[in-house]
Amino acid sequence: TNIKWLKQALWAPSIIEKEDNYYLFFGANDIQRPGRDSYDPNNDVNHFGGIGVAVAEQPGGPYADYLGKPLISEFYNDAQPIDQFVFKDTDGTYYFFYGGWSHCNLGILNDDFTGFVPWEDGNLFKEITPEGYVEGPFMFLRNGIYYFMWSEGGWTNGSYKVAYAMADKATGPYKKIGTILQSKDGDIATGAGHHSVIKKPGSDEYIMVYHRRPIPNQDRDHRVTCMDVMEFNADGTIKPIKMTFEGVVADTSKK
What we know:
Distance between the termini: 36 Å
CATH architecture of the domain at 10-129: 5 Propeller
Largest sheet: 5 strands, antiparallel
Order of helices and strands: EEEEEEEEEEEEEEEE
Shape: globular
């Protein structure tokens, strides 16, 4: 894919299908805001970027830049435009969760995914930051309950973890329940977080996909993608995720 405005780093992909096309939302260039310690006036790469969109006819691509520019390149509610996730609600609304720097915003994508539908107050985004939120928002729906999830701590160390809240609507209010994935002393890995959730079709089986830093190798950028089973209690709350070496065993049986 040729993204002309992409100069450095593409990460946190979120893909969704609509009308036989596949839209891949991504973060690029690690844009920084003037006034923050991380802002380098001599690094032009970090002066422009944000969240982009690419489109393809197949989930595996090839993808083409959809807009020729970022979908979001500004700092609404002081949220860094990264870590986006698109959630399609039962009424066909496409909700757009995103945000780094401990701020999470929620928007509504327009019909052609070129922009956003303003909220009733005229703003494009409303801040929905839960306590402890850092980045990596995610949402899924199960048995009428909306699960709003995110990462806490720092991805560069062992404090990274996943927490969640429950709600009756995608827009909240959200009731924080607690942490369900975190590293422990002597555990398999550190830095477990920035996850997604997948559901086995035709079942009530769920899997959490996330990254972690293997022990003893704790180099900051040595992260591997893992999959572990996610289970629920009778009241709908999520049981703590047990990190394993084996992960999820593939079902190779013929149907």
